[in-house]
Design brief:
The chain has 86 residues and is mostly beta strands. Helices cover 0% and strands 45% of the residues.
Length: 86
């Protein structure tokens, strides 16, 4: 279990929510993942639709898209469950 910090993935994931990450799913594919970029762990919606580009998107529109080369993104795992306050 990992605690979500910040509001970049709201309304899907809120600050303080707990997420379960399947570390067996490390392939770079679309979905919500925990990824490591430049030594920093991020929870983002991964989009792989453009050749040579991985887009890391926040669900909160106040945050911009981070575009990376596939080799610069290490997938820690896919988010498969969340729990948090009502």
């Amino acid at each position: 279990m990992i605690a979500v910090l910040g509001d970049s993935m709201e309304p899907t994931l809120r600050d303080g929510d707990e997420i379960l990450v399947d570390q067996g799913q490390r392939g770079l594919r679309d979905g919500i993942h925990v990824v490591r970029v430049d030594g920093t762990l991020l929870v983002k919606r991964v989009e792989t639709g453009r050749p040579g580009v991985v887009a890391l998107r926040s669900d909160n529109p106040a945050y911009g898209v981070i575009e990376c080369r596939p080799e610069d993104v290490a997938v820690v795992g896919r988010v498969v469950w969340k729990g948090g306050r009502i």
